Amino acid sequence: MIAESNKVKDKALIFNIQKYSIHDGPGIRSVVFFKGCPLRCFWCSNPESQLKKPEDMWDNTKKAITTVGEYKTYDDIINEVLKDRVFYEESGGGVTFSGGEVLFQAEFATELARRLRDLGIHMACETTGYASTKTFSHFIEQMDLIFIDFKHPDSKQHRLGTGVPNELVIKNIMYAKEHHDQVIVRIPIIPNFNDSLEVAHQFAHKLNDMHIDAIELLPFHQFGENKYKYLNRDYKMKNVPQLHAEDLEDYKQILEAAGITVSI
Predict the structure, then answer these.
(1) Mean pLDDT score of the chain, rounded to an integer?
(2) Which of 49, 78, 190, 239 has the highest Cβ tally under 10 A?
(3) Which distant-in-sequence residues (6+ apart) come within 8 Å of 91 by Cβ?
């Protein structure tokens, strides 16, 4: 379980604010990426997000080493995302918090979300759900839409793949479904981790037990591969083929046979 790790009062460690996103919630959105994560997923596509401190990384565009991660105030972030308010209003978009893990800096993120909602901004988040339920519950009160990952139905395998067990994640998924109207459970399908049809059956059973009747499958991709090289880190998924929707058809059918609506 993670503790509050923001050491700078009224600031958060941010490694990117991505504009004009159309894949992280409805409409056109700005995605605020919080730095620091308690998980160590071996397939992570944002390895620069993991450490809870600024770090050096090669920038292949600038052909220079740059610092990833900057402490920003509430006003820094609000002023930046409000530059695109007209796009949110015209498209039904808003702001999405991502990471890393936004709950790693939950106190700041919760207050920032409250301030943005008070300004009429639609709020979404992408989270691992790995935080105390008290922290999680306070945070999601400020969210209009929650995307939450469920990476493996078996706690031991979940720990092997991510570094943490899954009991707290499951508890928070169930809490979110009970207390929030807009929750989307996502399962990233990762080769040699959770892509077998045996695991699909395990997911089907666990999701039924949790009364989860709709999920999204996220096929494994290689979008973050070069980042490992730029950080001078080993990448365990090098040369592993990407997955596509058609590769998951049998997986999808197993879940659907259990009464679960599946989108890819």
Answers:
(1) 95
(2) 49
(3) 26, 27, 28
Write out the E strands in the chain: 11-21, 29-34, 55-59, 64-68, 70-73, 94-99, 122-127, 145-149, 183-189, 214-219, 261-263
Can you read off the two tokens belonging to residue 112?
A: 């920032």
The whole-angstrom separation of Cα 154 and Cα 147 is 20
Burial of 75 (0-12, 13-18, 19+ CB in 10 A): exposed
Q: What is the pLDDT of residues 109-126, one digit of tens each?
A: 999 999 999 999 999 999
Which one, of 133, 112, 77, lies nearest residue 125 by Cα? Answer: 112
Q: Could you say which DSSP state residue 224 is in?
A: T
- pLDDT-derived band at 5 (thresholds 50, 70, 90) equals very low
Environment class of 79 (CB within 10 Å of its CB; exposed 0-12, middle 13-18, buried 19+): exposed
pTM more than 0.85: yes
